[in-house]
Amino acid sequence: MGKARTPADLTITPRDVRFGRGQRLGRYWLNDDPIATAFYNALSVTFPKGEAYFCESVKAFRDGAPPKLAAEINAFVKQEVIHSREHVAFNRHVVNQGYDVTLLERHVDEALALTKGRPPIANLAATMALEHFTAMLAHELIANPRHLAGGESQAAGLWRWHAAEEIEHKGVAYDTWLHATRDWSRWTRWRVKAMVMLITTWKFFQGRRKGMLELLRQDGMTGPRVWAKLAWYAFGRPGMARKVAGVWFSYFLPGFHPWQHDDRRLIALAESDYEDALLPEARSKLHAATG
């Protein structure tokens, strides 16, 4: 079997769509479940600033990249900018429900502050690791309808759309890394990649745990019973963390590439599921974007 790489016929399409304008989400918009809702709310708070960081990390290596990769970086940036816009709008819904997200935003700022002054290649390695996380979560979110079952249509549609585009551009940061480190030895490349992923994994889980606990605390839910419910949600049912464990581990194997698993079929599935939830003007833009 040949070495895995980004499919030659892959097209990364920024879909300029909007969700939930002029509508009010319920406080527990996902199946009236405070635990599930807290997971997605806490994750969403990280996206605007986090995705801006991803864009800058990848753009730092755009000059001199092969034309195809440079075009994919441009499309990646456009997708991420639109994602940020939609999550800013979604986060307003979170705040409108009475949640104070100041602490969550401070945690994001503190995490990003740790990247200041680091070499651009270190920021790219962190972005590559986090993009693997988003691709894993995106695959599972679309492949297993249980995750968003019972969710309000506009919110669930937002997450499916975001997941579809994360799948579509999942190889961009990795291909940028391969180009930027083309003169490194395989051992050095693997060692740095693996170390950064281990650190990123720890910080990712710690950050999401703290964010969920803070939102649940504001709902008056604290203590060991809540911790047990969080663990069951992550590792039991629906078990997102448990189900992505194998794909997470594959990142450390020789010859890994995000497109070893060609799951583009999920993009079409997500679009067929969420299209009816789009605002009318956004639906027309989707048709124009996807031809």
UniProtKB/TrEMBL annotation:
Q: List the Pfam families.
A: Metal_hydrol
Superkingdom:
Bacteria
PANTHER family documented for this protein? METAL-DEPENDENT HYDROLASE
Q: What name is this protein filed under?
A: Metal-dependent hydrolase
What organism is recorded for this protein? Sphingomonas abaci
Q: What is the lineage of its organism?
A: Bacteria, Pseudomonadati, Pseudomonadota, Alphaproteobacteria, Sphingomonadales
